[in-house]
Each structure stands twice: as C-alpha cells, then as structure tokens.
Amino acid sequence: MKLPTTPSLRLEGKRAVVVGGSSGIGLGCAVALAEAGAHVVIMARRSDLIDQMVAAMQLKGLLAEGAVADITDVNNFAALIARLRPFDIFVNSAGLARHTPALDTKPNDFDAVMNVNLRGAYFAAQAAAQAMIDDGRAGSIVTISSQMAIVGGVDRAVYCGSKHAVEGFTKAMAVEFGQHGVRVNTICPTFIRTPMTEQTFSRPDRVRWIEEKIKLGRVGKIEDIMGAVQFLASDAAALVTGTALVVDGGWTAE
Ligand code: NAD
After folding, report:
1. Is 122 a catalytic residue?
2. Cα(196) to centroid of ligand 1, in Å?
3. pLDDT class of 211 with cuts at 50, 70, 90
4. Domain map of the chain by residue range?
5. 71 lines ligand 1 (CB under 6 A)
6. How does strand 89-92 pair with strand 140-144?
7. CA dist 36 to 42, 50, 87, 222, Å?
8. 85: which residues sit within 8 A by CB, 6+ positions away?
9. What is the pLDDT of residue 247?
10. Does the Cβ of 115 fall within 6 Å of ligand 1?
11. How confident is the model at residue 219 (pLDDT cuts 50, 70, 90)?
12. Mutation pick for ligand 1 pocket among 164, 190, 192, 196 (CB with most ligand atoms within 8 Å)
C-alpha cells in the first residue's frame, strides 16, 4: 500500500519579496518565509527600518536583504521588481487606513487609501506576475487583504471598498495567470495589534466591538498570519489560487 505524502511546507531554494516587510504583518510574513528556508527581500520605504529588520533576521541565521521602494510609485516599483528577479514568492503587505464616517470622507483621503491599497497593490501584483512569467517560475503572489474585504465596518467605507476590490483583481488575475502556473491569493486577517491599528485599539468602544465579534475570544497576533503565508507560498497550496485565506477568529462566520 503506497501512502500519499504531504507536500512540503518548506521553502528552501526559493526567493521571496515582501513589500511592507519592515513592520507589522509584513515583518511577520518575511520572518515566516525565511524560517521556512526562503531567501527574503524586505521592501519598504524607510531604509533605517529595513536595515534594522534585515540585521535582526540575519542575527537569527535567516536569509534576508533589503530594498527601498514606494508601492505608489508604480513605474519605479515595477523597474525595481524586475531587478530583483528571479523570485518565486511575492507578498504585498503595504496598506493604509484613514477611517472616517462615510458621510465625512474627503476625496484626498479616498485617493490616498486607494492609491496604496488598490492601485499600488494591483500594479505590484502585475509587476510580480510579469517577472514570474518571464522567468518561467510557477510562483505564488499573496496580497494581505482584510476581513473588511468580506464584511463592512463602521468608519471603514473607503478601507472596505479598497479591500473588496483587492479580492476582485485577485480572482481575475488568478484566472489569467493560471496557465503560467502563477497562483494569486489573499490573506484576510481580523484585527491585529500593529502600528496601523494603534488608534483603533486606543478606543474602548472599538475594543469592545472587536472582542464581541471575534468568536475565538481574542484579537489577532502577527503570529496568526505566519502559518497562513507559509502555506500559500508552499507546494502544500499548489492547487490553491484565486481565493482568500480568512484568518479572522470567526468574525465573518456570523
Ligand atoms: P503596518 O502599518 O505595520 O504595515 C503597513 C506597512 O505598509 C508599513 O510597513 C508601511 O510602511 C507600508 N506602506 C504603506 N504605504 C506604503 C507605500 N506607499 N509603499 C510601500 N510600503 C507602504 O500595519 P499592518 O497592520 O501590518 O498592515 C499590513 C497590511 O495588513 C495592510 O495591508 C493592512 O491593510 C492589512 N491588515 C491589517 C490588519 C490589522 O488589524 N493590523 C487587519 C487586516 C488587514
């Protein structure tokens, strides 16, 4: 009797690029991929933060380097991505939130959020896919989306709109890139304490809301995302594309 073998979650010999990898969820993704054996390029805007995180990872014996990039500078970003070829894994964790009641949304806040979360994410995924296709690599592209791509939330009309749109382009890209073996997915986290959510967690009414909605009874940790990104990057997810891996403690189950 020949038993099936679990496909590997290891990433030795793979090269990964993680945008927004110098803080929060992106840093968690960078460490997770490196701990699985990948060589990770941390891309972010601030070189001081990149240097700090790369040094910390190298001290742990992980394979890491850095590159400065702004995801909204679409043409320069694509050129930089092309210079980082070849790579097998591309994770985009760059994101922006400017929460206001929908009736108070200002066009400049709308544009700023869409510029990073949708336009930036779209062209980043496009650049990554182009590199993988040119190199004939069956790669994995993961955008850090949000549970707010599935449900609505108070003061979050723009943020929700941007993240719902991410799910749309992810599915469409998965349809087009499947023939090249390039997989395109998102991870949809619930609330996690990071620099982005400091303001939300400073409000007791919002903390009550979050704790009520998360059925597992605790807010998310960066560590909760690390296994998810390792899985989507690995051969264990070889047939997974065009979908969202929801890590929300049950928020959207209700
Ligand atoms: P964070 O503030 O630690 O990370 C966001 C990162 O995006 C930062 O490193 C920032 O420098 C980078 N960034 C912003 N604009 C950029 C640009 N123009 N070019 C390059 N990098 C840019 O916050 P986080 O919570 O780790 O957020 C990471 C992702 O996770 C975001 O997309 C966010 O929307 C998403 N998310 C966060 C939560 C949460 O509760 N923290 C929940 C769901 C989804």
Report:
1. no
2. 6
3. very high
4. 15-243
5. yes
6. parallel
7. 16, 20, 15, 16
8. 131, 134, 135
9. 98
10. no
11. very high
12. 196
Tens-digit pLDDT profile for residues 51-99:
999 999 999 999 999 999 999 999 999 999 999 999 999 999 999 999 9
Rounded CA-CA distance 12/40 in Å is: 11
> So what's the pLDDT on residue 165?
99
Which residue has its alpha carbon closest to ligand 1 atom 33? Answer: 95
Nearest to 21 by CA among 244, 198, 233, 222: 222
Half-sphere exposure of 236 (CA within 13 A, CB side): 14
Structure tokens at 160: 């929700």
pLDDT of 149 reads 98
- Determine the Cα–Cα distance for residues 53 and 36; give it in Å rounded to an integer: 17
Residues ≥6 apart with Cβ < 8 Å to 184: 125, 129, 141, 170, 173, 174, 177, 241, 242
Q: What is the pLDDT of residue 48?
A: 98
Q: What is the architecture, at CATH level 2, of domain 15-243?
A: 3-Layer(aba) Sandwich (3.40)
Does an H or E element contain 169, and which?
Answer: helix 157-177
- Can you read off the two tokens belonging to residue 101? 């009641």
Q: Which of 90, 123, 159, 231 is catalytic?
A: 159
- Per DSSP bridges, beta strands 15-19 and 64-68 are unpaired
Within 13 Å, how many C-alpha atoms sit on residue 60's CB side? Answer: 15
For ligand 1, atom 23: residue with the closest CA = 196
Identify the pLDDT of residue 136.
Answer: 97
DSSP for 137-163 reads ---EEEEE--GGGTS--TTBHHHHHHH
Which residue has the CA at smallest separation from atom 8 of ligand 1?
20
- Give residue 101's pLDDT: 98
